[in-house]
Amino acid sequence: MLGFLKEPVVVTAKINVNLGALTVLGLLSRLWGLCYPRAVVFDEVYYGQFVSLYMKRIFFVDDSGPPFGHMLLALGGYLGGFDGNFLWNRIGAEYSMNVPVWSLRLLPALAGALCVPLAYQILVELHFSHCAALGAALLILLENSLITQSRFMLLESILIFFILLAVLSYLKFYNLQKHSAFSGSWWFWLLLTGVACSCAVGVKYMGLFTYMLLLVTAGLHFWHMIGDQNLSNVSLLCHFLARALALIIIPMGLYLSFFYVHLALLYRSGPHDQIMTSAFQASLEGGLARITQGQPLEVAYGSQITLRNVLGKPMQCWLHSHTNTYPIRYENGRGSSHQQQVTCYPFKDVNNWWIVKDPGMQQLVVSNPPRPVRHGHIVQLVHGITTRYLNTHDVAAPLSPHSQEVSCYIDYNISMPAQNLWRVEIVNRESDTDVWKTILSEVRFVHVNTSAVLKASGLSGASLPEWGYRQLEVVGEKLSKGYHQSMVWNVEEHRYGKSQEQKEREVELHSPTQMDISKNLSFMAKFTELQWKILTLKNEDTEHKYSSSALDWITMDTNIAYWLHPTSGAQIHLLGNVATWASANAAALVYLCLSLWYLLRRRRKIYDIPEGLTPSVCVSRGRFVACSALRCHLLSPADAWQLWMSAGGICGGGWAVNYLPFFLMEKTLFLYHYLPAVTFQILLIPVVLQHLSDHLCRSVLLKSMFSALLVAWFSWVYFVYCTLSPLSYGQPALSPSELRALRWKDTWNILIRKH
Peptide bond before 637: cis, by omega within 30 degrees of 0? Predict the structure, then answer.
């Protein structure tokens, strides 16, 4: 049994020296001097706030995207022992000693470094030569904008890493398809494609563009498989289910897990709570949970409640009244009812309390046992402090003349009877017999006499004038089919009223609640609400000094000053390698023109791609194998054409889907938004160069001249990289004359101190 021990155990491994060298160079270029500058650089002031909140377990909402990228940055802080104590309020502020700068910047730098070998592997999997793949990797290595963006606590390098990983994984999976379907490696690369896509979307929603590109590519490939008569129906079904599992179901599950971890980590109340519903706020430790702990769950006749508008933006507000009345006449000459004002007040106040009254009874206390209010019941809402009834009638509202005025009724002994009956409609009910619940139920109040709905119209309009203390207008809106959130309310604070006498009731309204009932919100309910807030919550877009348009990016007519040394001329800018960006634009244009030319001639049965020698790809036993540029193998024109089109679909398509959508976006744009797109465009450069060498340079002389031009061109790329490096790394500091010499375009904002 132990015979195998007679021979030594030998392990052999193939090491791709190119790949190893590129990885080392990528790490050196991104990790060198990573702690410099030891100061807040541009958007570190933004992301650093979220890292601190993670360290303190305080809940927040970032409308820029999902939480996975923020969690990765926070992981760097956690590994470095960061306690979250730093005031992220100014770009250029020096980091205190408790901030682990190297650790916070490490993950983005590693992601940026690994993009270099990923670029190499993608070109290899596209069946281009190792020489072309090496060129693509070196272009990514020497791209100044990618270097700058990956050396700080920012998300773009992480996003690009997952995008490239997804593309590489899919290409490896596809190349295994014909002869190794359902093998271990086939499953690994397919599953990794879905995982990488989910991670890309989880970092920033821009990752969704590449995810859609890969889904469309997978769909087209599967469509071609359907026409393969060698595959049985069962086999096709298995292929379809495998792709659905790996590319749709698993990414969705992983995306949900990002939010699950996010919500599990951030369990404490924080400054962003107010934009969430009362139920969400009550699920957090501290804040509203302290106030609402022990409240009764079911609203009953006699309950004392505060009503918060569900919309919650641009600010939260509660149904409110006070002793002041509407003016007899408004500034525009219209008359009012001169009844007691009802508003929506954005602060907690004793005048926010209301009593739910049974119209058929006089008592304002909860009976024993309590009689719960259900969907469809008719109630009266009595203002707790003034004891006047919530009322609306056919009088125009002060700011919304097409809506009805809402007031608390005062009997002036004139021909204007009270109209104070309201029907409770639970919007999120499960059945028509649902009980009105504290925090959990979202309700509309429909006026019985006029069918108007109680609405906080001031959330979408102007505030009331001075006579209304600049509070928000509340109106009666004619019943509509939709359920706009400004018409929906929920009970936030709640107690069972016990005092019938007014003075005792006023004391009761100021006292804390008594009963103990827990209200837990499920993860899916919290996820749905948080996801909706991320998608719909938009900060006011203001013009930024370094904002730009999508058209400025192609020619790099813009830059961003990330950091300036307080005394010297040292500074960091987001600037691309001009030679690489110009070459990428030229490559995209050449690819487009050649593709259109080939398509037109193919319609005439003229095939410009020859059937002869192609020096970059060989066919071995039906499988594509990348080989060196010195070896030549026969390749059919159909295969060569497929190679050309698939490379364009991935590289050119990747550029298009990551760039063109920005023309449709109404948001403040910056140059760094273009980095995923330009990464794909850079990969297109060696694709076009190899095609020109293989198919257009037919003679030895032309090939020699083309090689010489390539050497000169790459020298230009390297020269530009070296020239702009002081602006990418922030060192060495340059003199004013040297900085002026680097202002190659008038639109570049290079900072020069005036001494």
Answer: no
